[in-house]
Amino acid sequence: MPVGSWGYEAGEGFNLTPTTQKESTLLIIKFLMDDQQFRKLLDFLGLSWKGYRKVRKGVKKRISRYMQAHGYLGSDVFLSALEKSRERREQVEKILTVSISRFFRDRKLWQALVKYVLPLITAEHREKVKVWSAGCACGEEVYSFKILWQEWGKGCPRLPELQIWATDLNPEFLSRAQTGIYSWSSVKEVSEEWLPRYFSYLSGTHLAISSSLKEGIHWSLHDLLSDDTPQKGLQIVFLRNNLLTYYQGASQKPALNKVIDSLSPGGFLIIGAHEKIPKEFTELLPFPHHPNVLQKNPLLPAPVHETVP
Ligand SMILES: C[S@@+](CC[C@H](N)C(=O)[O-])C[C@H]1O[C@@H](n2cnc3c(N)ncnc32)[C@H](O)[C@@H]1O
């Protein structure tokens, strides 16, 4: 039997079931993986050490808890189990996902969307506008966009039909998004005027999103690395604080190619406040009004799927 990195003999099925909460906490502390082991796990899964910097402590705890529950007492035996079992690997990938988000995160970005992006898009696409929130977490981003659209639309003589796709790797986050219940801290950037219009009070700690905002959103499980994009010919793709932060370059690039391909020429890619697009993606042009908005070159020919009647 292999000896794990903590010096314990380890293997799946090793019985390590704590009987009390205190015992459980002690075990997690005892078997909390160190940074070197965590880095090895991230490398193995193509994830970025730098990207996990701020959330490392909490994620390490979650992984350690999972290892303990399944009897993996060492990182070598754990990695070899992930290599052998796709199911285990997928479970661990989900545990590594981070759901941090909030309504109207990066306020100036939303101002740029209203002032510059929506007028351009709706002038060009008068019938239908298609938007994808990729890695939507618990829905904060997608509902923020719907609020913005409805508010902006009040001054618009004829608003195009809006279709939205919201996808995530983690089914638990998607289900929370569809339920639409949020803590007060996640709505702190919603204006006082909009708060009562789009949320109802549930308790001193939580609010519920208005059911009208839930209409017309196609929710689905989706892995940016392996799945085809849910739609093509999109006018806006939100790709914020996931692929470009948490993944290493080699895993990012093929996924990014697919995302760019899903945009129509002239469509907009929205990235996170601390993210950058690798230089080789020359089909994306900087947008003068905001550093995290990129525009797919409008002069590129429309992909074949868009020209088929
Ligand atoms: C930090 S949240 C960002 C949420 C939102 N986009 C924002 O910026 O506020 C990252 C989300 O990306 C999702 N995610 C991570 N890897 C993914 C993948 N390979 N495919 C799809 N979603 C992924 C996570 O499950 C998580 O919900």
Show the helix and strand layout.
Elements lengths: L20 H11 L3 H11 L10 H14 L5 H10 L1 H10 L11 H18 L3 E7 L5 H14 L7 E8 L2 H9 L1 E3 L11 H4 E3 L4 E4 L1 H4 L2 E5 L12 E6 L3 H4 L2 H14 E9 L12 E3 L6 E4 L7 H4 L2
Parallel strand pairs: 1-2, 1-7, 2-6, 7-8
Antiparallel strand pairs: 3-5, 4-5, 8-10, 9-10
Helix pairs in contact: 1-3, 4-5
Bound molecules: S-adenosylmethionine.
S-adenosylmethionine binds next to helix 7.
Tell me the strand percentage band: 15-25%
- CATH H-level superfamily title of the largest domain: Vaccinia Virus protein VP39
Q: Please tally the β strands and state the result.
A: 10
The bound ligands are:
S-adenosylmethionine
- Biggest sheet character: 7 strands, mixed
Number of spatially distinct domains: 2
Give start-end ranges of low-pLDDT stretches: 1-18
Average pLDDT taken over every residue: 89
Strands ordered across the widest β-sheet:
6-2-1-7-8-10-9
Question: Termini, distance in Å?
Answer: 62 Å
Order of helices and strands: HHHHHHEHEHEHEEHEEHHEEEH
Radius of gyration over C-alpha positions, nearest whole angstrom: 22 Å
